[in-house]
UniProtKB/TrEMBL annotation:
Family named by the database record: Belongs to the UPF0637 family.
InterPro entries: UPF0637, UPF0637_domain_sf
Lineage of the organism: Bacteria, Bacillati, Bacillota, Bacilli, Lactobacillales
Organism: Carnobacterium iners
Domain of life: Bacteria
Protein name, UniProt field: UPF0637 protein SAMN04488700_2228
Length: 210
């Protein structure tokens, strides 16, 4: 087993720190090194599942912020060396209350309409996910929904047709979850979540032109 780092309550408490500079200093010092380690390990394991596809690790820097401190922070696994938002990508991140483990389609990725249509036409892979998987249609908000067929179709159509539409699917862990006290169990949970999302990731890329 890898020498896995794990998040602690101290990491979640960073989001109670007032002020942009003060909060960002703690994010850089305590959270980002963990993102680099976990992200690199996840990237290597997922690359093997995807036929040695290279999955760069990108850590959110929040450089455009000038006043308000971030309410969450994350690393993205996927895309290319220049960025990740143009592509389906895996995300791992923290809010004050929970950790999120997403396959994300945000900020108008390439071939967005084609990917959305492929999921509208064939929702089977999404609907076959375990019952604790959830979906989000706005990465800037904390609220999520269970995977419900009618709501799923309606929101996939909105994602396809609205410039503001987004789609994220995955799992969340409460900051109080005891799994954070067991680094191996934590890493296994994260990796198994992403393994469950790989078929959706592959389906998305089938919508790209050859």
């Amino acid at each position: 087993m890898k020498n896995v780092v794990v998040f602690t309550q101290e990491d979640f408490d960073i989001f109670a720190i007032e002020g942009l500079d003060s909060r960002m200093n703690e994010i850089r010092k305590k959270i980002q090194p963990k993102f680099k380690k976990i992200g690199t390990d996840i990237s290597k394991d997922l690359s093997l599942l995807l036929g040695d596809e290279t999955l760069p690790v990108h850590i959110a820097q929040h450089l455009r912020r000038t006043k308000n401190p971030p309410q969450d922070t994350w690393c993205a696994i996927g895309g290319d060396k220049r960025g990740y938002k143009k592509y389906p990508h895996f995300q791992l991140g923290l809010y004050h209350s929970h950790l999120f483990i997403w396959l994300a389609f945000i900020d108008n990725p390439q071939f967005e309409k084609e990917m959305a249509q492929s999921f509208i036409d064939n929702k089977t892979v999404i609907q076959s996910l375990p019952s604790d998987f959830v979906v989000s249609y706005d990465h800037t908000k904390e609220n999520v929904q269970s995977i419900d067929e009618s709501e799923l179709r309606k929101n996939l159509i909105r994602w396809r047709d609205s410039k503001k539409g987004e789609f994220l699917v995955g799992r969340r862990l409460s900051a109080a979850n005891p799994i954070f006290k067991d680094s191996e169990a934590f890493y296994t949970f994260v990796l198994e979540t992403y393994k469950s999302l790989v078929p959706i990731y592959k389906q998305a890329f089938q919508a790209y032109p050859n």
